[in-house]
Amino acid sequence: MRWLRGLLVADTTIIVSTIFFGLISLVVSFFDSTGRKQAWLAHVWAKSLLAGSGLHVTVEGLEHIDPSASYVYVSNHTSYMDTPVVLANLSSQFRFLAKSGLFKIPLLGTHLSSAGHISVPLGDPRAAVKTMQRAAEVIQQKKISLLIFPEGGRTEDGVLQSFKEGAAYIAIRAGVPIVPMVLIGAREALPYGAGVVLSANVTLRILKPIETAHLALKDRGTVTEHLRQLILNELEPKSEAQALRASKISSATQIF
Question: How far is residue 72's CA from residue 144's CA, in Å, rounded to a whole number?
Answer without folding.
Answer: 9
